[in-house]
Amino acid sequence: MVKVVVSSSRGTSLAPGLPYTVDLPDKTVDTATVADIKAAFAAKYPKFYASRQKLSSKGDKKGLSDDTTLATAGVSDGGELVVKDLGPQISWTTVFVIEYIGPLIVHPLVYNLPRVFYGGPVQHSLLQKFVYAQVILHFLKRELETLFVHRFSHGTMPFAYIFRNSFHYHVFGGVFLSYAVYSPTYDASSPYIQGTIRDDPRFLWACTAVWLWAELSNGLAHLTLRNLRPAGTKKRAIPYGYGFNLVSCPNYTFEIIGWTVLSIMTGSYAAWFFLFAGTYFMWMWAVKKHRNYKKEFGDKYPKRNILVPFIY
Questions:
Q1: What is the mean pLDDT of residues 208-214?
Q2: What superkingdom does the record give (predicted)?
Q3: Does residue 232 carry a pLDDT above 80?
Q4: Is 306 inside a domain boundary?
Q5: What is the pLDDT of residues 268-282, one digit of tens each?
Q6: Pseudo-torsion of CA 112, 113, 114, 115, nearest 10°?
Q7: Which of 33, 121, 187, 262 is buried most, with the most CB atoms less than 10 Å from its CB?
Q8: CA–CA distances in Å: residue 277 to residues 256, 270, 272, 274
């Protein structure tokens, strides 16, 4: 049997009467985990569900992972943990579905309703048709991967973050990109298009071939990562195979290549901005993942670059 006192530095209406003593009759400090404490606490206060809780040792603001045992956390029988309300939560699957749905709504509207957005008709150039197809296929792929491929190590995130996370895709990848590339500047009669390489089917098909390779390679990398983690677990393992033998995060590498192709095809400031902004975030995520791999697996982790083969 083990007992743990759960307190809060701030009062919360979700759990009146704190501190509360959690009693785990079938556990010891060596077997009881943070997840067990969260579950027992949520049983007492159902509105304070487990994913909304952050438990930390007294005097330490860093949250404890769910699989940490009380003994590992330095909490003895009768010890104390501090709970913090993370706010309403939303599943990561729902987060990504909402993020990627923005461009899938905005691009068809701007492409098919030019009179509304530009005040007149737009005779779509071959370039615009290629770009439209690439954008729609890309985000449809991302939605399908979210629903059927990705397995997330964290089940939820604070609901308030959905607006911040969606801004990049809805505004930069949706509104800015679509308004720029489907405008009369890129239509069939534009001097920017007529008689240039951007009106040459050979150039457009060559770019599309590279783009398609990048998209398929990105999908294969996601499948590799999925197969490393059995359903319902948070297991982590070293990924190997296509792309992973060169860099730690080939999914980001292929993603960047795909958007680079689209940016070269159009030359649009909006496409380049979306690429640079996305690359910045993926670079930060890749550095963090590479560091975590090396920290977790040590000498077992093979020597690889982070994002760019043979360079970085």
A1: 98
A2: Eukaryota
A3: no
A4: no
A5: 999 999 999 999 999
A6: 150
A7: 262
A8: 11, 11, 9, 5
Q: In the 8-state DSSP scheme, what is residue 147?
A: H
CB 244 within 8 A of CB 250: yes
Listed as own residue / partner, the contacts of 301-308 with beta carbons closer than 8 Å and 24 or more positions apart are: 301/238, 302/238, 302/245, 304/244, 304/245, 304/246, 304/247, 304/248, 305/246, 305/247, 305/248, 306/247, 306/248, 306/249, 307/247, 307/248, 307/249, 307/252, 307/253, 307/256, 307/282, 307/283, 308/247, 308/253
- CA 297 to each of CA 72, 92, 226, 248: distance values in angstroms, whole numbers, following the listed order: 20, 26, 19, 13
Residue 152 pLDDT > 90: no
Which of 60, 86, 112 finishes a domain?
86
Range of the domain at 233: 90-300
At position 214, the amino acid (one-letter code) is A
Residue at token pair 């569900």: 49
Rounded to whole angstroms, what are the CA distances from 119 to 112, 113, 188?
A: 13, 10, 17
Band of residue 231 on the pLDDT scale cut at 50, 70, 90: confident
310 falls within a domain: no
pLDDT tens-digit series, residues 77-105: 999 999 999 999 999 999 999 999 999 99
What percentage of the chain has pLDDT greater than the value 90? 85
DSSP conformation letters of 156-185: EEETTHHHHHHHIIIIIIIIIHHHHHTSGG
Q: What's the whole-model pTM score?
A: 0.87
Instruction: Please tell me whether residues 133 and 266 are part of one structural domain.
Output: yes
Q: Residue 308 falls within a domain, yes or no?
A: no
